[in-house]
């Protein structure tokens, strides 16, 4: 990931869970090993979509995936102006949407999911505050403007960013995020979208943290290399059909003994469907990784006018005061909702491997699988017998990979190269 993307990721200070914990029983993990021995699974590479010279699968940016149980998938590609559908063999089927501002047109489509039970698809665009629904065959069903209490994304001041999802019973909800700079501990709320000016029902409320920063993944060649950042903070996810909004939070570990991860499923009425507690053992962040973060930001801040007027020693001191560098990897490096309204939680087992806990639609643990940290970071979707990842191919082009979920342990099939 380049400097600009990393800077943007750090600018988006991550969230601190504000709804608290209950006394539900915890699943104990001893150094990453579960106590009750759930069923073991592995991922075997199955299919890749994305190429350097194809007609319809040369991606510039892949924002989200919406897979079906049969192995077909809808790929949200903002630079293409909509969604691209591929069949179970990876062959291009159709495109839904194009660049524009009218019906069936988008400026920057950001999210998608299932609309109803007939295979229709919704796509939302926060830039033009519009939600569009396509039928299972790709025909336009309807397209309408949306807002949150009469408010829309403020593109001029950047003070509030509002995105849209669809939850159960086709209820459109807005996710409001106050921009982080200068607004510490500002709220993030999920509420039904409407044109009214009253205070709607708050479905989810989170709070930003001032002390959370990205931590790079260790590469096969060793630590200290700035790679894809890991979110050191709570996550907000939505199931593909909108049954649940998921929040995943954790206690901040002060030692490598344990940290509590809390996953909560919340329905459209704001009621808790289930809550799952996991005790995990954090992985130490090597000193060279911490040093690389400091070095990166010492160089980065020199581009700002204020820091350009001070000495490198002064800017380095300011960076150390500004960044509260954690000593341990965040336990959760990916939270992936499934097509069956469950949730996958990827947690580091060591500095090379992640253990993925597979939770069903009641929060019970169906199984566990072990994969490389780099693959865990790219997981994007799972449904039926398949898991999906968005990774980076040659020259930085995105590629979509499908993996078959197979019972048993051991390495999967090798992945191809472009």
What distinguishing features does this structure have?
418 residues, mainly beta, Neuraminidase, eight-stranded mixed sheet, five-stranded antiparallel sheet, 5 helices, 11% helix, globular, disordered N terminus
Task: Give a structural overview.
The protein has 418 residues and is mainly β. The protein has a single domain, classed as Neuraminidase (6 Propeller). Helices cover 11% and strands 41% of the residues. It contains five helices and 32 strands. The strands form eight sheets. The chain has an eight-stranded mixed beta sheet. Strands 1-19-18-17-16 form a five-stranded antiparallel beta sheet, with no helix packed on it. It is globular and about 55 Å long. The two termini are 19 Å apart. The N terminus is likely disordered.
Indicate the topology:
Blueprint: H1 3-11, E1 15-17, E2 26-27, E3 29-30, E4 33-34, E5 39-49, E6 64-67, E7 73-77, E8 82-86, E9 92-96, E10 98-99, E11 105-106, E12 111-115, E13 120-125, E14 130-134, E15 140-145, E16 160-167, E17 171-178, E18 187-192, E19 204-208, E20 215-216, E21 229-230, E22 235-238, E23 245-250, E24 259-266, E25 272-280, H2 287-301, H3 305-308, H4 312-322, E26 334-337, E27 343-348, E28 353-359, E29 365-372, H5 373-378, E30 379-383, E31 386-392, E32 398-407
Parallel strand pairs: 2-25, 5-29, 10-11
Antiparallel strand pairs: 1-19, 3-4, 5-32, 6-7, 7-8, 8-9, 12-13, 13-14, 14-15, 16-17, 17-18, 18-19, 20-21, 22-23, 23-24, 24-25, 26-27, 27-28, 28-29, 30-31, 31-32
Helix pairs in contact: 2-4
């Amino acid at each position: 990931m380049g400097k600009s993307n990393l800077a943007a990721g750090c600018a988006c200070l991550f969230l601190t869970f504000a709804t608290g914990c209950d006394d539900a029983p915890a699943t104990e993990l001893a150094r990453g090993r579960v106590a009750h021995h759930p069923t073991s699974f592995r991922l075997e590479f199955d299919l890749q979509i994305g190429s350097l010279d194809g007609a319809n699968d040369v991606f510039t940016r892949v924002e989200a995936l919406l897979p079906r149980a049969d192995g077909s998938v809808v790929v949200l590609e903002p630079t293409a102006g909509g969604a691209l559908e591929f069949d179970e063999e990876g062959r291009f089927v159709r495109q839904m949407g194009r660049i524009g501002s009218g019906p069936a047109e988008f400026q920057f489509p950001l999210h998608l999911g299932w609309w109803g039970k007939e295979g229709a698809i919704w796509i939302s665009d926060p830039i033009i505050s519009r939600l569009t629904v396509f039928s299972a065959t790709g025909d336009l069903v309807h397209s309408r403007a949306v807002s949150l209490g009469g408010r829309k994304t403020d593109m001029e001041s950047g003070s509030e960013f509002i995105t849209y999802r669809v939850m159960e019973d086709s209820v459109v909800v807005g996710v409001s995020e106050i921009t982080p700079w200068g607004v510490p501990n500002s709220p993030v709320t999920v509420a039904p979208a409407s044109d009214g000016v009253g205070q709607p029902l708050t479905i989810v409320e989170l709070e930003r943290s001032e002390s959370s920063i990205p931590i790079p993944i260790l590469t096969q060649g060793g630590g200290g290399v700035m790679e894809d950042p890991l979110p050191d903070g709570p996550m907000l996810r939505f199931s593909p059909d909108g049954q649940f909004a998921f929040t995943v939070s954790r206690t901040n570990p002060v030692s490598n003994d344990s940290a509590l991860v809390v996953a909560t499923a919340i329905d459209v009425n704001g009621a808790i469907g289930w809550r799952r507690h996991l005790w995990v053992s954090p992985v130490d962040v090597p000193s060279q990784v911490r040093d690389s973060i400091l070095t990166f930001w010492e160089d980065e801040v020199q581009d700002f006018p204020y820091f350009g007027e001070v000495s490198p020693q002064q800017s380095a001191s300011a960076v150390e005061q500004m960044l509260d560098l954690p000593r341990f990897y965040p336990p959760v490096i990916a939270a992936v909702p499934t097509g069956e309204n469950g949730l996958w939680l990827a947690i580091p087992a060591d500095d090379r491997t992640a253990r993925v806990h597979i939770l069903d639609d009641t929060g019970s643990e169906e199984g566990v699988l072990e994969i490389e940290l780099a693959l865990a970071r790219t997981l994007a979707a799972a449904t039926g017998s398949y898991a999906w990842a968005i990774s980076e191919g040659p020259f930085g082009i995105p590629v979509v990979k499908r993996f078959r979920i197979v019972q048993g342990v051991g390495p999967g099939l090798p992945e191809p190269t472009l």
